Amino acid sequence: MKLTSAFVVLAALSGAFAAPTTEFYANSKVQRDLGLQKIPLTRPTNYVPNIQKAIAKAIAKYDRRSFRSGGGRANATAETYDDAWITPVSIGTPPQVVKLDFDTGSSDLWVFSTEISPASDSAGHNLFDPSKSSTFANLDGYTWEIGYGDGSGASGDVGTDTVNIGGAIVKTQAIELAQSVSVEFVNDTSTDGLLGLAFDNINEVDPVKQKTFPTRLAEEGTLPSGSQLFTTAFYSQRDAEQSFWTFGYIDQDLVQASGEALRWTPVNPSRGFWEVPLTRVTVNGKATSVSGYTGVVDSGTTLLLVPEAFRDAWYKAIPGSGYDTDPDSGHISWWFPNSALDSLPEFKIELGGTLWTVQPENFIYDSRDANTTYGSLQSIDGHQAILGDVFLKSVYAVWDTENKRIGLVPKIQKKQNLQPTSTGPPP
Ligand SMILES: *[C@@H]1O[C@H](CO)[C@@H](O)[C@H](O)[C@H]1NC(C)=O
Ligand SMILES: *[C@@H]1O[C@H](CO)[C@@H](O)[C@H](O)[C@H]1NC(C)=O
Ligand SMILES: *[C@@H]1O[C@H](CO)[C@@H](O)[C@H](O)[C@H]1NC(C)=O
């Protein structure tokens, strides 16, 4: 990505002039008027941590987006092992409830439907049945296909219907109905489809790209100017707190708890992502800088995948750390000794002119053996880093679709749970 100097100046200014805004108070009125609610999240119970698969999944997702045209969302095989944010969503009249994976790294809303063939592929899933919804309208001749090129993926036809998420209602939302799904999606009964929250230009519907749920909330006038945003509060399974999303309003309790005002970072949506300039990290206060890099903020990626220089700065501050090489892909997975768990180096990443701390417990991905632990901080080739859930769990994030910017305050747990895990869902 080319950064114009105006963009860089804007990035610097936005950090300097962070302050509570009138919108902030206006959108709590919108919350009351529309009766908007927090949307609780659950995690899949069938998650098997696998550092190689987690890295491969993220790389496949962005390889496709950045360097290929068409094709699918991700390698569906690896997808099965994703750490997803699953949320109940009501579609149609009367409402039919499906469990969707909310993904800020893609822009399609697709769902397991009664059109799936063979019907046995839908076993264990909630299905959307368009014939039972009085508000469903078919989009004649429209199709979609999400696949990785190895035959795995999903495809189908398209219609529009009402969608209600926590009281935020779109009347005419494009719903991509699955008619065919690969075995990986069939087997993953924890989710019935996906809800994309990236920008409209990477939607996969033919012949005309369709708009995302946040875009339609704005276009239909459900959310007024100043409230065209959604927010994410993600917590580790190590913590007791309930993770949630909001649409249309900012949770003031979390902002106040941080003791700070939201600070904004401008987003460049030209490649379809929540993509921000990435310039600098500090490890134990010592800076490492890169130029020409961006970071995609992505709820659909588990790990924090950074330039090698950033990764090296952190692991080299941990005596006894090392890496394994996957013989098939050549990807490497860094680990550190368990003796370092209580004294992991402090890691801060700069966004919008502010350094954001990534809390220590989020660096623990999974046990490697009795004495070592795989880190959730790994690297990615190319100039596009991925700021996944490891980053998002340390902040409360406001995704401002109207002004194309992300607002953050810190959200660091008072008590850090630093036990390495070996089974069950990742932190
Ligand atoms: C994609 O899936 C295939 C199996 O269908 C697997 O062999 C391959 O390693 C996967 N690739 C990536 C990048 O995850
Ligand atoms: C899907 O589930 C079936 C039945 O449990 C199993 O035999 C098959 O190996 C699974 N396939 C994948 C790709 O997970
Ligand atoms: C872990 O460390 C202990 C003590 O040094 C050693 O005996 C054991 O073999 C190590 N285990 C592994 C899997 O490396």
Automatic annotation (TrEMBL):
The active site is at D103, D298. Residues 1-18 form the signal peptide. Residues 85-409 form the Peptidase A1 domain. Pfam families: Asp. CDD domains: Aspergillopepsin_like (cd06097). One of its GO terms (molecular function) is aspartic-type endopeptidase activity. SUPFAM superfamilies: Acid proteases (SSF50630). The keyword 4Fe-4S does not apply. InterPro entries: Aspartic_peptidase_A1, Aspartic_peptidase_AS, Aspergillopepsin-like_cat_dom, PEPTIDASE_A1, Peptidase_aspartic_dom_sf. GO terms for biological process: proteolysis. Keywords: Aspartyl protease, Hydrolase, Protease, Signal. Belongs to the peptidase A1 family. This is Penicillopepsin-1. It comes from Vanrija pseudolonga. The gene is PEPA1.
